């Protein structure tokens, strides 16, 4: 049976091999600055590109692409905390409570306004048959603590009925 290399020996060999591959890149001399090179990369306004901008420009130039302005974020402009959201608008106390009853072809809506503002309510009736005319009732004002009864009908069956509200 052959000898099995230990785990420590295989880790040592792997780390030496990786180091041998990385050392040439680590000791390579950085490229001269854009101002020192003939035809160096420059940003808008003729200013030389610096840091990451210069690296990106060199990469684009190596691929034959045009050098564009890189987006630079000023960290001083980023707030330390997110802005406080504004308060939601105050809720309007408005809208009568309506109960709708459908009996055969007759529709009745009973509305009660428990709020201090007047509500204009309107009954809408949609009939089931294509030839039956749908009805939209007239707007009726329901004052504070007021009650109203709205009615409508179809010739045959009622498909749906609802009450719309509008501030008065």
Gross geometry:
elongated
**Count of alpha/pi helices:** 2
Radius of gyration: 39 Å
The N- and C-terminal alpha carbons lie at a distance of 98 Å
Strand content: 25-35%
Helix content: 10-25%
Low-confidence stretches: 37-41
Mean pLDDT, as a whole number? 77
Main pleated sheet: 4 strands, antiparallel
SS-based structural class? alpha+beta
- The beta-strand count equals 7
Run of helices and strands: HHEEEEEEE
Plain-language structure description:
It is a single chain. The protein is of the alpha+beta class and 168 residues long. It contains 2 helices and 7 strands. The protein has helices at 7-27, 52-62, and strands spanning 97-103, 106-112, 119-127, 135-136, 140-142, 147-153, 158-167. Strands 3, 4, 5 and 7 form a 4-stranded antiparallel beta sheet that branches. A 3-stranded antiparallel beta sheet has the order 1-2-6, with no helix packed on it. Strand 3 and strand 4 (135-136) form a beta hairpin. Mean pLDDT is 77; it is low at 37-41.
Main features:
168 residues, 4-stranded antiparallel beta sheet, 7 strands, elongated
Note the topology.
Layout: H1 7-27, H2 52-62, E1 97-103, E2 106-112, E3 119-127, E4 135-136, E5 140-142, E6 147-153, E7 158-167
Antiparallel strand pairs: 1-2, 2-6, 3-4, 3-5, 3-7
């Amino acid at each position: 049976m052959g000898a099995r290399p230990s785990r420590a020996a295989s880790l040592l060999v792997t780390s030496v091999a990786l180091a041998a591959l990385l050392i040439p890149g680590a000791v390579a001399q950085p490229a001269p600055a854009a101002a020192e090179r003939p035809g160096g990369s420059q940003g808008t306004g003729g200013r030389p590109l610096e840091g990451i901008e210069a690296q990106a420009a060199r990469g684009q130039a190596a691929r034959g692409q045009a050098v564009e302005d890189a987006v630079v974020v000023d960290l001083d402009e980023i707030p330390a905390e997110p802005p406080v959201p504004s308060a939601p608008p105050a809720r309007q106390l408005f809208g009568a409570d309506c109960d709708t009853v459908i009996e055969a072809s007759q529709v009745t809506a009973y509305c009660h306004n428990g709020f201090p503002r007047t509500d204009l309510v309107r009954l809408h009736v949609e009939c089931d048959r294509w030839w039956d005319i749908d009805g939209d009732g007239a707007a009726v004002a329901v004052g504070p603590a007021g009650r109203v009864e709205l009615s409508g009908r179809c010739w045959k069956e009622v498909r749906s009925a609802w009450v719309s509200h509008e501030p008065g």
